[in-house]
Design a protein that fits this description.
The protein is α/β, with parallel strands linked by helices. The protein contains twelve helices and twelve strands. Bound molecules: pyridoxal-5'-phosphate (PLP). The site of pyridoxal-5'-phosphate has 13 residues, from α3 and α4.
């Protein structure tokens, strides 16, 4: 079904066609060409990181992190249950045990207040997810990790350009994973990046990304032939994708300005209404600068959410729910029973509104009207009903 107002619409920044044409003319469509190098330089400056490596997805950046930390069957990884499959899968395919933790009811981020109770002798890493681009409580998470000798890998799929206490998300862990999937603020269709904050992991990261070979040392003239030196896979994207991505990255300020406008429109027009109707809206703690990745409602009940989604659909507007609790999924249950009541509760009530750079005031006006009309129909929704 076609929606007049889709949930996401890919938006071009301007130079995508020009850069892709240049990449074709350059004669290097394979990975690590001139556009990949320019993306790396730009991202290393932004993150102030010793090494950033483009990958084919955030999923693959997380898989690289699992290999870099030598995760295996003796290890446990703590992740929030309210996240995308890849946060868990990247470590599960190395054989690691996944420990699902619950989230905070305000930011919907990993609940750091209960985190320490999940740490065991087997814990290898904590993987916080900065949900909707609002940072987790990184001071507490990093302190717990340090005290227990556990690594932090940030899943920063939503959080590009967000900050916690003035510091970029994606720079707290030894590693962090970025997504450039079509639904993200900055996109090249499918893509990602591994941000390597621990310089000791940089050399091996390059090897793992290049099929376990020391090809990058060869290209730098450090060895006279390249060979198989470690496990790895093919995690580097074509330079054509990097060309697309560079055009978007160079327009990051304009893209972020547009997304901020969209977020603030929803906030301004729904804030008072939400209070009146017992509807939750995103919460951004004062120490966080968010990335303006998404806008959601937490409705009073599952029934209410489904009915609102159906009403929006009738008006040609696509709204979507989000993660289904991973600890209750067929695969997730293989890691043992877990209780994550906040995840379960939020997952059944959360609804994401259309959000893309070029969403217009008129379109947002229609969305807001459809929502407020729905509640004006005098249905009474009470929490848990
Ligand atoms: C929190 C989180 N992590 C990882 C991913 C996977 O990203 P990608 O599609 O780039 O592999 C997603 C996808 O939306 C996500 O929401």
């Amino acid at each position: 079904m076609d929606f007049r107002i889709p949930f996401n619409r890919p938006c071009l920044a301007g130079n995508e066609y020009k850069y892709i044409a240049e990449a074709i003319t350059n004669g290097q469509a394979s990975g690590d060409g001139p556009f990949t190098r320019r993306c790396h330089e730009l991202l290393e400056r932004e993150f102030q990181a010793p090494k950033v490596l483009l990958t084919t997805s955030c999923t693959h950046a997380l898989e690289m992190a699992a290999i870099l930390l030598n995760c295996g069957p003796d290890d446990e990884i703590i992740i929030p249950s309210f996240t995308f499959v890849s946060t868990a899968n990247a470590f599960a395919i190395r054989g690691a045990g996944i420990v699902f933790a619950d989230i905070r009811p305000d930011t919907l981020n990993l609940d750091e207040r209960r985190l320490e109770s999940f740490i065991t002798k087997r814990t290898k890493a904590i993987v916080p997810v900065h949900y909707a681009g609002v940072a987790c409580e990184m001071d507490t998470i990093c302190d717990i990790a340090r005290r227990h000798g556990v690594r932090v890998v940030e899943d920063n799929a939503h959080g590009l350009f967000a900050r916690y206490k003035g510091k970029r998300t994606g720079t707290f862990g030894c590693l962090s994973a970025q997504s450039f999937h079509e639904t993200k603020n900055i996109s090249c269709g499918e893509g990602g990046a591994l941000v390597v904050n621990d310089p000791n992991l940089a050399e091996r990261a390059m090897i793992i990304r290049e099929k376990g070979t020391n090809r990058s040392q060869f290209l730098r003239g450090q060895v006279d032939k390249y060979t198989w030196v470690d496990i790895g896979s093919s995690y580097l994207p074509s330079d054509l994708l990097a060309a697309f991505l560079l055009a978007q990255l160079e327009s990051r300020e304009e893209i972020q300005r547009k997304r901020r406008r969209v977020w603030e429109y929803y906030w301004r027009h729904l804030q008072g209404w939400a209070k009146e109707h017992n509807v939750g809206l995103p919460f951004v703690p004062s120490e966080c600068e968010q990335s303006y990745h998404m806008f959601y409602l937490i409705l009073p009940s599952l029934e209410c959410r489904q009915a609102l989604m159906a009403q929006l659909k009738e008006r040609g507007i696509l709204s979507v729910f989000h993660y289904v609790p991973l600890h209750l999924s067929a695969m997730g249950m293989k890691f043992g029973a877990r209780e994550c009541p906040v995840t379960e509760n939020v997952s059944s009530r959360l609804l994401r509104l259309p959000f893309y750079n070029d969403l217009t005031d008129d379109e947002q006006g229609e969305i807001v009207a459809a929502i407020t009309d729905f509640f004006g129909q005098k249905r009474v929704y009470t929490p848990g009903a």
